[in-house]
Design brief:
Length: 290
């Protein structure tokens, strides 16, 4: 083999090696960078507090449906918040966390939310509470407190107490939450000498707030008996109800649930008993015909 041919072979071999290295570099997979190790951060300590599940307005009653337990950072926990003292964070991630959450859910369902939640049921909202906001004693009134009735009354309404008996109260079947008509039976002053009796409807569709001091409806089939009934009366009709009470002969007619959607008020012009006077677009007074 001549020196020239040997030189050609050496050059060809070098070119082949260089081409192989170039092709390998083009198609080789890049190496993945080394994983960065990040230290795990412990979750903040959480405590379950009682919050409103929905927006609550003044006068609303607390129920198991509008309250719930929610995790709250323990570091920012206010002493006024109502807590069940349980942690809202599972000690371990994964299956243990799921099992612990499921266990608390089942416990809440079987106990009605626990003793602290059940103790709040029936209380009345004193100040508006927004959904997700913790419930505090400042914003609620317990049903046994003296200010309960004042909070329970809507704007423009008055609570008036009337005497009650089995005969005048639909046989004892009237209960808190029902609607009644107030009727007055008295001497007919329009007749000469005031002879004869007349019965007039003083107020229609009045809400029963309480019988004696019982404000809750009885269990199914039970009756509530008492000597005093407290009704929700519009302020413009309060004087008419008071006058009817002095005349005596009051009777309460229980309204059907199918007939409680009407307005609450006294006689109107279309029933021939009186005229409702409006001032500035609002009802001002009711003048009853004598």
């Amino acid at each position: 083999m001549t020196p020239a041919r040997i030189l050609i072979l050496i050059v060809a071999l070098g070119a082949a090696v260089g081409l192989a290295l170039l092709v390998h570099g083009m198609f080789a997979q890049p190496k993945a960078p080394a994983p960065t190790v990040v230290a795990a951060t412990a979750p903040p300590a959480m405590t379950r507090v009682l919050v409103a599940k929905t927006d609550l307005a003044v006068g609303d009653r607390l129920t198991a449906d509008n309250m719930s337990w929610q995790g709250w950072p323990t570091a920012t926990l206010n002493a006024a918040y109502i807590s069940d003292g349980e942690s809202a964070v599972a000690p371990k991630p994964g299956v243990d966390a799921v099992m612990q959450k499921a266990s608390k859910t089942v416990s809440d369902m079987t106990t009605g939310g626990g003793p602290k939640m059940t103790a709040m049921i029936g209380d009345v909202v004193r100040e508006p509470i927004f959904a997700g906001e913790p419930i505090t004693a400042k914003k609620i009134v317990h049903s046994g407190d003296t200010s309960y009735m004042a909070v329970r009354l809507p704007e423009g309404m008055r609570a008036m107490a009337l005497p009650l008996s089995v005969e005048s109260g639909a046989g004892g079947f009237i209960a808190p939450g029902d609607r009644v008509d107030i009727m007055s039976t008295h001497t007919d002053q329009n007749k000469n000498g005031g002879g004869g009796m007349i019965t007039e409807t003083v107020l229609s569709n009045a809400l029963v707030l309480a019988i004696d001091q019982k404000t809750d409806a009885p269990k199914s089939g039970a009756t509530v008996t008492g000597v005093t009934i407290t009704l929700e009366v519009p302020d413009i009709n309060a004087s008419a109800v008071a006058k009817a009470r002095t005349q005596g002969g009051l009777t309460l007619a229980l309204r059907s649930y199918a007939d409680i959607g009407g307005r609450t008020g006294g006689p109107s012009a279309d029933d021939g008993h009186g005229v409702r006077i409006f001032r500035g677009g609002a009802p001002a007074e009711v003048v009853t015909a004598q």
